[in-house]
Fold this sequence. Notes:
Helix content is about 30%, strand content about 25%. It is of the alpha/beta class. A hairpin with a 6-residue loop joins strand 8 and strand 9. It starts with a helix and ends with a strand. Zinc ion (ZN) binds near residues 236, 297, 299 and 301.
Amino acid sequence: MTIPSGTLSIIREQIRRLKQIPDGFYSKRFADINPDDIRSQDGFESLPFTDKDALRDAYPLGLSAVPARDIVRVHSSSGTTGTPVIIPYTRQDVLDWAVMFKRCYEIAGVTRDDRVHITPGYGLWTAGIGFQAGAELLGAMAIPMGPGNTDKQLQFMRDLGSTVLTATSSYALLLAEEIERRGIRGELKLKKALIGSERWGEKMRARIASELGVSLYDIYGLTEIYGPGIGISCDAANGMHMFDDFVYSEVIDPKTGKPVEDGELGELVITTLRKQGAPLIRYRTHDLTRMLGGGMCSCGCGYPRIDTILGRTDDMVKIKGVNVFPGQIDDMLKEIDGVSSEYQVMIDHFEGRDRFTLFFETDRIDEHRRALERDVAAVARMRLGFAIAPMGVSLGELPRSEKKSTRIFDNRY
Ligand code: ZN
């Protein structure tokens, strides 16, 4: 995607402003950058990336690009390790975020007559309050439940007549199963569900949709860039629309940092265009997706689209010039009858070549197992674009692991 000239001039002015902040986050980083050089795609792509470590190093308020008295709120990303990242918001940032979130609801067909049941968490986390502010700006009724307490969730859902569920995919599934188990679907008025974007398979999606009897929408966002609500999928269910008047999105090869073509997989990188409290230039999200070209969406909405998030770039490996990530292998194995969902990949360098061994579990034995291995090899050649060594093992033979990323072992380096 080519960067529009209007977007370039916004970025240019933003860099000019950021460079002038004494001891600002970007004043030193961009010391050698002349904003006047940012007049073309190449000029923009010469700007360095910003990564999460730099944000961590700026703890507590080093990211702030405004006087302290202009900050009205902070949020913090839920870092699993180490120092948290604190994101300061001005009054305008808080409003801009709500404006985007209102748009998300509108694209999903939510109106002020709806009752929005909000289960994501509140507090330092951005989720709950984002869903709430957007619903209120729209004029819908916000029901700020927060997570947990299933009995109360279901009671309020029934008694208040919630029509829209907002949740993570795992919590939506838990509620769907509980509703099914209690046989109370007929007492509920749910029509739609807005699900925080994370990688979740088609099987899970289908279960939530059918057990709840709702239309599903993927909502995208991250704490570092406002929070959820900077993009959402539509009724065309063909990727997520990104609000390009607030954020500029690009997709790069995570290994080389070079932009990839539309339709090619890579890492989503975001530049904020209006953020005041903590503007970010070329922030690496580590989310794996692709830009979807093809012009206007059939829903009639002109915002550019990215694909559903397919995983984290940290989990990706490059083999024989092809980027491979766990989600791709999950999807591939799901298509093949007789293969269970457990698998493990071993990559090594053997006789001068990269070798990709795919261990998968199956209940088939002897020649049936050999035949299945040939099927797996054929599908892999088609889907991944290179030859693999398939290795069927018995059910329960592979170690169980919580994290998807530990399913790929790269022994080449
Ligand atoms: Zn659309």
